[in-house]
Amino acid sequence: MSAQAVMGWLERRRAGYRAYAALVGEQATALLQEDFGRIRGLELERDRLAQGPLAEAVPGDLEALLASSGSVRAAYAETRGEMERALGLERAYRRGLESVLETTRAELAEVQGSGTPRSPYGRQPAGAGAGAALDLRR
Fold this sequence. Notes:
Blueprint: H1 3-51, H2 54-57, H3 59-114
Helix pairs in contact: 1-3
């Protein structure tokens, strides 16, 4: 596989990961907005019941609504935390991919500049015998 083919493959992979990260971010944002809308609706209903004539008639229902609102808030906070952790992992993964891409570009530039084919398993020239030492320092 030529150096340009490898670079093309890496660029396509990178573009794919970028698209995936964007999709994950969009979906997470949409879910959070939907959850926030539900929470806001519960808060409005709670406020309406607390101020209306039903507040005295159904104190148990009002307490249940308030408890429900609290549990929804807790679930929202937990979901948001998980989303933020997932996005953090996604960012770390992307940084790792970009680091690999930069290293690969540098190695390809080195190989293209020297004109010496190299093995992907170390820094010895391709075709070196089994006794050739591998340089595994990196």
